[in-house]
């Protein structure tokens, strides 16, 4: 199969010895929306810059549509990059800013005008075409940056925290626009962000990184329901992590571990020794389902926010765990601090991982 983008064991060690990225493997299909997500300094931007060609790679290979472009200069790669600060020329007009990439390619005037007009129209920027970029709002600048990236018709659009400078409201609006645009154009997007909701809401697949290493590459839902590493389990969503000792294999593809709270079954591989339980997988009260895990405790606090009830339960050993339930449920309505509760969990919603 021919991938649009392929990273094979890509690594970057900066001249001062900092290892920013190691052994990054990724295959991206045409038209996929992939997000790189991780805390500050984990190597997201370095990886994006290596794909764009602004940073030399020190290990591995990068292929675009099967062609090895590892050492091709940026202007000869079929990529466009959009920066967080948009990098617009403030005293150039919107039209000149957008045409910039085509000027670099020495496109002839009539064709250039046609392409710029079309993209101005697409982004609702026609009325601002002759205004200088410094006289526009943040949202308008963001659109120009996108238009400038897309006018050159790249195979892959690389976006480095492109919404970071926008306020929360505008950010939500542009997120929606971006998703629709990407779907319409069918262009591959690689998007860097440290905002979880953005990565999970926009992309087909998320690459979670920490310390220069890929922790997991999965569809957003799977990151919530089946975290693969302790880092992902802590970083994504709200999980309770219980450490134990590896146990036996059970029927039905389940695995068991021994924990201070008794044996716990879950979905995992042999040798797993940690249970990960999403906050919304706990039930208040048992339902006697097969293999149901039961934890006894008392309610430490309760908060109802919109449709979600956040209940903090203190177990007998003093550990507090977070439970999310429907705010309208009888349990969420009636429980108050100090009440005794039993929490039930089905093994199918527990993931067992290796620490
Ligand atoms: N030019 C450089 N020389 C040396 N080290 C660098 C250089 N640029 C980045 N680094 C280091 O490489 C690591 C990865 O940085 P990078 O900017 O890729 O992270 P990031 O995940 O994009 O972070 P952020 O979200 O803060 O932008 C960090 O430890 C950073 O300090």
Automatic annotation (TrEMBL):
PROSITE patterns xrefs: ABC_TRANSPORTER_1, ABC_TRANSPORTER_2
Span of domain ABC transporter: 5-236
Record flagged with keyword Chloroplast: no
One cellular component (GO) term of this entry: ATP-binding cassette (ABC) transporter complex
Molecular function per GO: ABC-type transporter activity; ATP binding; ATP hydrolysis activity
UniProt entry keywords in alphabetical sequence: ATP-binding, Nucleotide-binding, Transport
Family: Belongs to the ABC transporter superfamily.
Keyword ATP-binding annotated: yes
TM region(s), chain numbering: none
PANTHER family in UniProt: SPERMIDINE/PUTRESCINE IMPORT ATP-BINDING PROTEIN POTA, SPERMIDINE_PUTRESCINE IMPORT ATP-BINDING PROTEIN POTA
Gene3D superfamilies associated with the record: 2.40.50.100, P-loop containing nucleotide triphosphate hydrolases (3.40.50.300)
Protein name: Putative spermidine/putrescine transport system ATP-binding protein
């Amino acid at each position: 199969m021919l991938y649009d983008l392929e990273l094979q064991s890509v690594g970057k060690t900066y001249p001062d010895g900092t290892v920013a990225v190691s052994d990054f493997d990724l295959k991206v299909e045409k038209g996929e929306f992939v997000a790189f997500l991780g805390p500050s300094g984990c190597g997201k931007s370095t990886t994006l810059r290596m794909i764009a060609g602004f940073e030399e790679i020190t290990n591995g290979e990068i292929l675009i549509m099967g062609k090895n472009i590892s050492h091709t200069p940026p202007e000869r790669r079929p990529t466009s990059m959009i920066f967080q600060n948009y990098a617009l020329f403030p005293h150039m007009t919107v039209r000149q800013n957008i045409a910039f990439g085509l000027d670099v390619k020495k496109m002839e005037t009539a064709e250039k005008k046609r392409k710029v007009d079309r993209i101005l129209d697409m982004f609702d920027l026609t009325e601002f075409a002759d205004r200088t970029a410094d006289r526009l709002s943040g949202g308008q600048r963001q659109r120009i940056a996108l238009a400038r990236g897309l006018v050159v018709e790249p195979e892959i659009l690389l976006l480095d925290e492109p919404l970071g400078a926008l306020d929360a409201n505008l950010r939500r609006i542009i997120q929606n626009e971006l998703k629709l645009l990407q779907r319409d154009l069918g262009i591959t997007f690689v998007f860097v962000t440290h905002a979880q909701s953005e990565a999970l809401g926009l992309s087909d697949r998320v690459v979670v990184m920490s310390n220069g290493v890929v922790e997991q590459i999965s569809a957003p839902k799977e990151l919530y329901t089946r975290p693969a590493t302790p880092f992902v389990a802590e970083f994504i969503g709200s999980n309770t992590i219980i450490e134990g000792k590896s146990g036996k294999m059970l029927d039905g593809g389940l695995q068991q571990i021994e924990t201070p709270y008794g044996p716990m079954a879950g979905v995992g591989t042999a040798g797993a020794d940690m249970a990960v339980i999403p906050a919304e997988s706990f039930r208040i009260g048992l339902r006697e389902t097969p293999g149901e895990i039961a934890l006894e405790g008392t309610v430490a606090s309760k908060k109802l926010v919109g449709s979600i009830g956040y209940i903090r339960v203190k177990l007998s050993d003093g550990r507090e765990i977070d439970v999310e339930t429907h705010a309208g449920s009888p349990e969420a309505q009636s429980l108050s601090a100090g009440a005794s509760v039993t929490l039930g969990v089905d093994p199918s919603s527990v993931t067992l991982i290796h620490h």
